[in-house]
Amino acid sequence: DPSPIFAVFWKVVTAATCGTTFIIVGGYFPLSTLKEVTFIEDTSVLYKFWYIYASTGVSRLKYYFAWIFADAICNNSGLGFNGYNENGVAKWDGVSNIDLVKFETGTNLKETIDAWNIRTNAWLRSVAYERSSKYPTLMAFGLSAIWHGFYPGYYITFASGAVFTAAARIGRKHVRPFFLKTNELKAFYDVLTFIITRLVITYITFSFVLLELEPSIQIYMSLYWCLHILGVALWMFAP
């Protein structure tokens, strides 16, 4: 029988690293700063993006810790074996809920979202996305918001996620072919979409961890709703 020992060891080490980093670094980028008047009114757009990226990135570490450690516990009890890869190595990702590397390095929004809360995404696809004859993306994001609870921040994030997912599909369909002509253009496109994806994830997820309505709206106003405007314009006016 395949042994889970190496998978369990690696996941425990990864979870411990995430938890320790969160404890050490978390105090330097508190989420409470996002609600301060000085942050909203007296900082530049560029600084806001940088700080939101840092604070939400640190905040994600606690989710990584919980999911990866739980995954290790399941593997240690024999759950999660998922066959073998092309090299004959046993895969223990059958109950994994996060692909940390893919989420943090994804070059498009769908790939990044699919790597987060993986089993819940599978459930949402089964019960909402594949059953909806109209607006399946919106229906899946709407159900996800209700499933999470009733904090306003959840609804802001998932509504924004639905808009940006649709816009990203349109942009990818019409723009990507122009960058497939040479390897250099393809590499440039990958770097560009990596940066854009990080910006979008930063822009739409801070309200998820902030939870509150008023500060979330104030931050978006201080950012001039810039990415929302671009996303909606692309969604509405692209071919």
TrEMBL record:
The chain crosses the membrane at residues 7-29, 145-167, 188-211, 217-238. It is found in: Membrane. One of its GO terms (molecular function) is acyltransferase activity. It comes from the Eukaryota. GO terms for cellular component: membrane. Its main location: membrane. Keywords: Acyltransferase, Membrane, Transferase, Transmembrane, Transmembrane helix. It holds the Pfam family MBOAT. GO terms for biological process: lipid modification. It is a multi-pass membrane protein. This is Oysgedart. The lineage of its organism: Eukaryota, Metazoa, Ecdysozoa, Arthropoda, Hexapoda. The gene is oys.
